[in-house]
Amino acid sequence: MTNTNEEKPYPNERAPEARLPEKTTPEMAPPPEHERPEAGEIETPPHPEGAVPTLAEKMRLKRRPKLPPALAVDPVTVKIEKILEDGVGEAYSRLSPIAKQEFKLKGEDTARKIRILVRGTHIKVKKIFRLILEWLKLLPGVNRFFLEQEAKIKTDRIIELSKRK
Fold this sequence. Notes:
Layout: H1 4-7, H2 55-60, H3 75-85, H4 89-93, H5 97-119, H6 125-136, H7 144-164
């Protein structure tokens, strides 16, 4: 009786000559810049008169926006932003353009986070206060105690706003 395990040391393995060569795809160079369509342009293939493009072609040809759409801002968020920007105009005007942009973006992010906190059933005053204080700390050369006082005033106004709605 012959043992089949002796003939094949590894039963699940193919013989080396039976292996298929790996397929390689030739590298394609990207088309020159003058041939590429821009983000807002549509590249349309030629269609004979009266021919209807297929769904796949329509999906490929769909126009893509150049900029992402603006986020919808609700009125409560706008009011929160107004409360936050009240009283910081003088310090804001002294900032460099880069610092102004950073302060503005952080302020919008803070307003969005506060809106989420206010939307809940239980308003977390301490978190709102900390968010405002961290945002105000971006202003250079302003007394820490003044910043805490401003953050407390803004927090009180936001809480009052949330109670009115």
